[in-house]
Queue: 3 jobs
Job 1
Amino acid sequence: PEQFWELFDEHVTLVGYAVLIAILIAVPLAIITSRISPLEKPMTWIANIGQAIPSLAVLALALPIMGIGFRPSLLALTVLAVLPIFLNTFVGIMSADPAVVDAARGMGASDFQLLRMVQLPLAMPFMFAGLQTAVVQSIGLATLAAYIGGGGFGNWILQGLAVNSFPLLLAGAVPVAVMAMFAEILLGLARRAVVPKGLTVA
């Protein structure tokens, strides 16, 4: 039990920090990209290509930069979490009804007021969808961090594979699956509480 909670703490800490840092990077980046037209195509292209890169490859690229342990694992997970949050936030901002945007401009709203009072509220369903994707994805991908000494339940999964122990393998895999399901449910409830029903994305 002691080792279980130690691994749980490592897993949650890794995922929590990665998603938090990703939000702080992705949301401002999406806002800047939505304001500077020449950035739209290259940034969305990079983000789409980035999502196609295997997770293990991202972890491998982090090794020469930061070695092994928590920090390279955090770097890799942050990079992977930035992509869905950035894309969904950008799409949400750009999907604002042009008639609503024109009406706000006609009432004298500045660009900052337009963003804060119109575009970001309308983008909330997309942003929550990106956050859900990033969190659930990070919980699963954090198991791979064990390959580079990042800790978490991936340690038990690797040990189970190494010694051909199915119980040990399940001891690592089941908590990760349960955590991912609970995260999906809790974020779904949070989205329903925060996002007005009229703006909910199916």
Job 2
Amino acid sequence: MAMASTPPDLDSLRDRPSSPEIRVLRPRRAAPADAVRPTRAEVNLAALRHNLRVLQRHAGEARVWPVLKADAYGHGAPAVARTLERAGADGFCVALLEEAIELREAGITSPILVMSGAYGGGHDEVVQRGLVPVVYDRGQLEELARAVRQLGAAAPHAVHLKIDTGMARLGVPLADLAPFARSLHEFPELRVDGLMTHLACADAATPEETAHQLRLFDEATATLGRHGVRARVRHAANSAALLRGESSLDAVRPGIAIFGVSPVAEGEREPLSSELRQAIRVRTEIVSIRELEAGKPVGYGALHRTSRPSRIATVPIGYADGLSRKLTNRGHMLVRGVRAPIVGAVSMDMTMLDVTDVPGAALRDEVIVTGAQDGPHGRDHIGAHELAAHADTIPWEILTSISRRVPRFYREP
């Protein structure tokens, strides 16, 4: 979609938030054909299919709806959805209407659940594109019903009702459930096809909080039933709950596990599953090597000084690519099959490694940020959990932070 050559005057638009002249453009992800620098993210499609099979086995009879929000956790939603749709996924979940539209425009025909609903508008798009919105307030019901009527769409349109059982984020509070259930009967254009809740502590050390939420979910289901609202499907489980064998119900919503990163229960060291395969591998190459004497500074702020004669390699990846600046002087990358420590400040576009102890390290050598590497000196793997530990964050943020300027290459083994 073209953008006007002259930007509109902001003052003239201030009171026209729904002006038809305003368009929202999605940032374009760097395409493989446009790649010049050697930094890229490689997505193993076979690993995605393998992870889906593992999760289907854990889910038993429950439907498996992979969660592809945040550009499929940084993996590229259209390509991931096409792969999983062909592999037998029962449907998909996204957070935003924009994400659902992207999947429909990529040719995805499976059911798509928009978990955050259509707040801010877009209800016509929901109906026209056959999406399943999550609802939790009366305003959503009114707008969706209006869209069904005005578009002459087949009624009733399926929705899923979200119940807040302890997340305190979105969902109908338990105290408001009975009047909300009564109001549903005012909208024959809509049908509550599913009930859902969001588990807040599925990876906690003990299951008590999850069990409490599920009890409240059962009570909410009973309350709705007494008011004539009976859904075909109920769902609550995320990756952690699914892998722990909790709350499969009629459907499950695995997110990070689809991409091969298993949650770790609070206080534990081992992941909940050892079968999953990390699907993404971020790689780059050495573009410069410096020979430094002992005591020489490295990078912005001289945050590292060599303690010995050192070989310092520069790689073209930085915090603008999603490599956290908290990795300054922390963590490693893989070079020739062994670990090379990150030294100095992670800058916007570049990071330095100490390759003094990597025999033969040279220009154009492959460098692995996350993923596995086979090299002349061995084989090693740096997973999302390890990166997260060094950056004081969680694997979810590591994956979703890989920026759109890093092209995604899709691989079969």
Job 3
Amino acid sequence: ILPALLNAMGCEVVALNAYIEEESGDTKGTCQTLSLQQISKIVVALDAQAGFLLDPVAESIILVDETGRVREGAELLSLMTALTLQRGAKGVYAVPVSAPSVIEQMAQERGCTVQRTKSSARSMIEASLSSEVILAGSLNGRFAFPRFQNAFDGMFAIAKIVELAATRGTPLSRVVEEIPFRSFHETTIPCVWEKKGAVMRKMSEDSLDKEATFIDGIKVHFGEAWALVLPDQTQPFIRIIAEAKKEEEARRLLKEYRDKVESWKKELP
């Protein structure tokens, strides 16, 4: 039904692989990569303004801008926030503790505030129940617009990006370029479920003399830079995320905390 909705908005739509079965494991990742490569080439070939990959349950999206560049994760969340702010929407923006700090920077410049939540879908949707929340956005391409409905809706998110971009009249790649630069890196470390709690206790002890927050995992602040150690909720991994103004500082923080987690794992029986 999405192409028909976009046609009603005045868009010319080319639907690719309009029926895709849900898959799991590595096969899903491989199919997604191939689909993105296909979308990227076709967007450029057709001189289209954007391309989108919508997941089979219509909750999350990945964007391909008019240059064929894939925008997802932290970059897509920052883009959606920037577009919504530039439209003049005032209120609260709910994002996970792992989201880039540039979101606060952009919101403050527009007289808005940011609410940090846990990374779980439930926590984000609960935050969006507040009448002040304009947008709730995750790092995996899921967005909720509470004034429409308190749920992640990929089709509505696509329509919203099209609307906001058309209103501004600026190519999406240029909107991304205008977002203040912050170096944002993340990695995952395998960790069996039995050791996750002990690793996080080590992280807590290591953070006693530092400025830290405990909304979800443990986030340690170093001025405008930070590092987050976050146990994955559904898989045997620990996520490490680092952000800083300079690329080398972000990479150094990521390596420092990756090495710490690896050493803590080895110390445990």
